[in-house]
Amino acid sequence: MVHPRVLAAMAQPLLGHLDPAFVAMMDDVKTLLRFVFQTTNALTFPVSGTGSAGMEACIVNLVEPGDEIVVGVNGVFGTRMAEVIERAGGTAVRVEAPWGRVVRAEQIEAALRNCRRPKLVALVHAETSTGAWQPLADAARLAHAHGALFLADCVTSLGGVPVEIDASEVDVAYSGTQKCLSCPPGLAPVTFGARALEALGARRTKVRSWYLDVTLLQQYWGEERVYHHTAPISMNYALREALRLVAEEGLAPRFARHRLNHEALVAGLAALGLGLAAEVGHRLPMLNAVTVPDGVDEARVRGRLLAAHGIEIGGGLGPMKGRVWRIGLMGESSRQSHVLAVLAALEEALRAEGRAVAPGVALAGAEAVYAAAPRA
Ligand SMILES: Cc1ncc(COP(=O)(O)O)c(C=O)c1O
Predict the structure, then answer these.
(1) Which residues lie with the beta carbon below 6 Å from any ligand 1 atom?
(2) Which of 73, 233, 235, 297 has a 20 to 30 Å separation from 187 between CA atoms?
(3) Distance 154 CA to ligand 1 centre (A)
(4) Residue of minimum CA distance from atom 8 in ligand 1
(5) Atom of ligand 1 nearest to the CA of 128
(6) pLDDT in tens, 122-146
(7) What whole-number distance in Å separates Cα of residue 278 and Cα of residue 161?
(8) How far is CA 209 from CA 127, 128, 190, in A?
(9) 312 falls in which pLDDT band (50, 70, 90)?
């Protein structure tokens, strides 16, 4: 869901991409992005395009042909990063973990030891295909100990769980607007730290993408304000408003809200005999991959939720196709009324699948969590 203030911002009259009023707005967006990324990185701005454009921007700027890149692959988006790394001419050294589990620091260390001169370690912080929450700080420390940079995909994590770019020593990260920032899709916030800029300055070859070359983009987003490409004006209005809403709520209360709604959902699911696919201790609050019980038609339940209850949940991707439902509780959508609505709908849909479900059992499970939570 997108807050009405964000929709209203998008309906404002347009400005030129070098209009002083728009330039001031760009500065607001950069400042607010530094706040959500928890960084002082000067080069923090939204790339034009969705999260995948942020991924490409980070990778094509840092990877040169022949570079060795250690990449965590435990879901769709780590797999996509490896693909983009190879398209940029890099050698992707895949460190794999079963889908639903996180990549272990020891695996990363072993891969780094096997490289001649690793350039970068890349991990997905919040793997949207499985609901796994990947720790970053230890991997960043290992990358640096081996002379490599550290890249994090924060598409689904930003605004929903702590993303501490500076404290975790992440050198470069990207995100997307449509997940926990609750903005329409269309921009990809990125941040580049000092070590990443140094590596960019030391490139032997030109960045292979003109559109995503951050040395060109920073002339527009930095002090010079040189035209590069026409900024998506209305999307920047939207992003500024969405980020203001994050700042008004505050990061800690926002993360606590995501966590509470997740815990209530999990309790309600447990009452229905349903569990999560991601490993215990590494479960994202905003993306809940629920294991489909034997004998239940995964797609039919999803179809029923949409048709009869107006609730859209995701299906499984890749090896999880047909095996999980993915319930998003992101940004504006992470709210008690949504948790209760999806649980009530699941109760009804499971009964329609022939399962014995006592009426109200899931709601009672979730409500007990809300009742025990300290009042905000
Ligand atoms: C973790 C992660 N990375 C990258 C992407 C790609 O973003 P987009 O679909 O906005 O291009 C997504 C999208 O769902 C994602 O969840």
Answers:
(1) 50-52, 55, 77, 124, 126, 128, 153, 155-156, 176, 185
(2) 73
(3) 9
(4) 51
(5) 16
(6) 999 999 999 999 999 999 999 999 9
(7) 16
(8) 26, 27, 16
(9) very high
